[in-house]
């Protein structure tokens, strides 16, 4: 099933040709911020108030020059800033060295991509003509647009490579670096200078130790990619970048336009897993969960697509509902355990994450950011993902409900857009489960975005109650089992057959009357047309 993408190799010698320029950028550049506001500067001797008061601000009388920023050019020395994160230790640590090498390589890869972009467009020719002062006036607009497109491609690749190459150094620590401001698109070198200037500011503010250093850089890379991607949505002449696929073989780093290439890094699960026979009752939900876990393992990491997502039948979102104590948490533990075991055998990265009430924040916009980070982590195309929202009625608020906080409303909006929005791409590498004791309290539009319903009804039969009692008692007792075949009723094939047979007819009195009336009029409901007529009769 695996077919390689139509990729061009970004050769190692092309990347290493830019190592010197990248190293010089890290050692020191001068940059005057145009959009961002400087919060940190290089340490300099303080001036007395008398001397400081004698400095006057220069106001240019040259037409057009008044609109330019008159901020002083500041020195940016990333390597020195990195060295300051370990309490003045004179020796460079392994983490600092890895970060420096990762930043240099990310810069070199970005410059190499910019070189390819220029070679596939008229930009090389226009740069040469401009250098020789023979650029035709009618092509000036095209030249400016191509320079801006190259700057956006280089900036995004820098952030993408930075996040990918430093993912191996990441920990569970996360840093909220804030929005990225200094995104310049005049030309590629200036764009990189602006990015390095702002990265230097972020490191100086947030990176008080080496763990926070890596987390700060990764947080900045994510924000930079988001900002550049949104800027590129309306930018012209980007087809040479978005239409090409590159791969850096040494790092196994794919470059596909403005799509992030994340390192295949799973999360370490600290969870009590349950085996399928330890889930008593809930036969249909258990069967559907086991089936979905097997479907997820058919994901093709090279094509980044699951054949079940193409053919149909893949459950991207589902709602698990039932009364309290019927086994929703046990079902989550069973499915996560199955996926974890499958991925360990197949050597696939597996990532499980739960969106809990802790993600609802009092700060405006923070809850939405938390929900978006949850969605992005689970939907990472480089991993098998399983995301759950337990007690979703407590986390995602109903629209128009005065009792729902602003944070709950933000989470509802993010989940609705992610599950069935205009930009939702179902690759088949992940699934989301929403669980609730009171599904009627969930927003109607969000509840309807669930592709399937897992009815968690708990133990039903006499055998189920004997099995769950034996399971809860464990083995540390001397009570005999008696006349009972332990867990035989939980055998999935037998249990599912009986459960499906039971659910082949409606249980509610009103639905039974409609069902019998429709079947008496048109016969057994064995075609889509007859089923549609039954649904209309229910209405």
Mean pLDDT, to the nearest integer, reads: 84
Characterize the main sheet: 5 strands, parallel
Number of strands: 10
Radius of gyration: 29 Å
Across the major sheet, the strand order is 7-8-9-6-10
End-to-end Cα distance: 44 Å
Quick recap:
The chain has 21 helices and ten strands. With 539 residues, the protein is α/β, with parallel strands linked by helices.
What features would you describe in this structure?
By secondary structure, the protein is α/β, with parallel strands linked by helices. The chain folds into three domains: 8-43 and 71-256, no CATH class; 276-455, Rossmann fold (3-Layer(aba) Sandwich); 505-539. The protein has 21 helices and ten strands. It has helices at residues 12-16, 19-27, 49-54, 78-83, 94-120, 123-131, 140-165, 188-206, 210-232, 239-242, 283-296, 307-311, 328-346, 366-378, 392-395, 406-420, 444-448, 462-473, 492-502, 509-522, 528-538; strands at residues 8-9, 29-31, 74-76, 245-248, 253-256, 317-321, 350-354, 384-390, 430-436, 452-455. The chain has a five-stranded parallel sheet with strand order 7-8-9-6-10, sandwiched between helices. The radius of gyration is 29 Å and the shape is elongated.
């Amino acid at each position: 099933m695996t077919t390689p993408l139509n990729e061009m190799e970004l050769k190692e010698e092309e990347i290493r040709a830019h190592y010197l320029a990248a190293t010089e950028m890290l050692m020191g550049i001068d940059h005057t911020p145009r959009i961002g506001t400087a919060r940190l500067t290089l340490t300099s001797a303080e001036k007395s108030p008398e001397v400081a008061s004698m400095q006057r601000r220069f106001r240019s009388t040259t037409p057009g020059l008044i609109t330019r920023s008159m901020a002083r050019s500041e020195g940016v020395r990333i390597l020195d800033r990195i060295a300051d994160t370990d309490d003045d230790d004179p020796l460079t640590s392994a983490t600092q060295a890895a970060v420096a090498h990762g930043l240099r390589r990310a810069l070199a890869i970005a410059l190499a991509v910019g070189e390819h972009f220029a070679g596939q467009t008229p930009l090389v020719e226009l740069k040469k003509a401009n250098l020789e002062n023979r650029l035709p006036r009618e092509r000036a607009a095209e030249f400016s647009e191509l320079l801006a497109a190259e700057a956006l491609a280089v900036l995004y690749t820098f952030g993408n490579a930075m996040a990918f190459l430093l993912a191996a150094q990441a920990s569970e620590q996360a840093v909220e670096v804030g929005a990225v401001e200094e995104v310049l698109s005049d030309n590629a070198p200036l764009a990189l200078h602006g990015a390095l200037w702002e990265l230097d500011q972020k490191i100086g503010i947030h990176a008080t130790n080496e763990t926070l250093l890596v987390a700060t850089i990764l947080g900045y890379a994510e924000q930079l990619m988001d900002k550049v991607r949104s800027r590129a949505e309306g930018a012209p002449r980007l087809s040479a970048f978005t239409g090409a696929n590159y791969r850096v073989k040494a790092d196994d780093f794919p470059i596909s336009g403005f799509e992030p290439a994340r390192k295949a890094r799973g999360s370490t699960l600290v969870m009590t897993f349950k085996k399928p026979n330890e889930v008593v009752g809930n036969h249909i939900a258990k069967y559907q969960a086991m089936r979905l876990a097997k479907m997820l393992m058919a994901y093709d990491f090279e094509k980044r697509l699951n054949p079940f997502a193409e053919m149909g039948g893949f459950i991207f979102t589902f709602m698990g509902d039932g009364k309290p104590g019927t086994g929703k948490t046990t079902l989550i533990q069973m499915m996560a355990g199955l996926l974890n075991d499958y991925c360990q055998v197949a050597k696939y990265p597996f990532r499980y994450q739960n969106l809990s009430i802790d993600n609802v924040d009092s700060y405006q916009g923070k809850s939405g950011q938390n929900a978006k980070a949850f969605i992005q982590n689970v939907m990472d195309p480089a991993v098998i993902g399983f995301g759950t929202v337990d007690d979703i009625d407590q986390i995602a608020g109903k629209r128009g409900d005065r009792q729902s906080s602003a944070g709950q409303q933000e989470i509802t909006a993010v989940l609705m857009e992610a599950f069935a929005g205009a930009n939702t791409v179902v690759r088949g590498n992940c699934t989301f489960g929403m669980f609730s004791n009171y599904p009627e309290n969930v927003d109607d539009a969000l509840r309807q975005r669930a592709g399937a319903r897992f009815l968690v009804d708990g133990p039903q039969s006499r055998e189920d109650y004997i099995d769950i009692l034996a399971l809860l008692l464990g083995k540390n007792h001397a009570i005999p089992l008696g006349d009972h075949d332990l867990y035989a009723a939980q055998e999935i094939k037998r249990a599912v057959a009986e459960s499906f047979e039971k659910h082949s007819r409606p249980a509610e009195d009103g639905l039974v009357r409609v069902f019998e009336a429709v079947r008496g009029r048109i016969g057994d409901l064995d075609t889509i047309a007859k089923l549609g007529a039954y649904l209309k009769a229910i209405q």
